[in-house]
Write a structure and sequence with these properties.
It is a multi-pass membrane protein. 79% of the residues lie in helices and 0% in strands. With 131 residues, it is mainly α. It has one domain (2-99).
Length: 131
């Protein structure tokens, strides 16, 4: 039972860190290229779509680990301590409440927005010559 509680605490702290990175990405003090790296890393971390499918032995999970670790490591180095600490505090307060549904809604809305933008771009590319 103690191991289950430890696992739950680690999962909660990981969720807090990912949400803190999302909040840091929204901060106006963060430069555009750091935001881009954070958006790619967070999107890849929570996305069910992988570059290499998980069914491929070793490499399926290795690309997830390497990609997310590199992205988060680079983001941590580029973010200032003040921005990161403030984002962690906000994330902890938001996810410690009984309903962390807000974070999931935000992530879902971001993916829907990204898919809409891609669909519009594909539509314009395919049908730009027709008029």
């Amino acid at each position: 039972m103690a191991q289950l509680n430890t696992l739950k605490q680690k999962a909660h702290s990981l969720n807090v860190e990912i949400y803190a990175l999302y909040l840091a990405c929204k901060d106006v003090r963060v430069k555009w290229y750091v935001r881009f790296i954070l958006a790619l890393t967070i999107g890849y971390a929570i996305s069910p779509i992988d570059l290499v499918p998980d069914l491929v032995p070793v490499f399926g999970f290795l690309d997830d680990v390497v990609g997310v670790t590199l992205g988060i490591g680079i983001a941590y180095q580029l973010l200032t301590g003040d921005v990161l600490n403030q984002a962690r505090l906000q994330a902890y307060e938001a996810l410690s409440s009984p309903e962390p549904v807000t974070a999931y809604k935000i992530i879902g809305y971001v993916w829907v927005l990204a898919l809409c933008i891609v669909a519009i771009m594909v539509y314009k590319i395919l049908f730009s010559g027709l008029a």
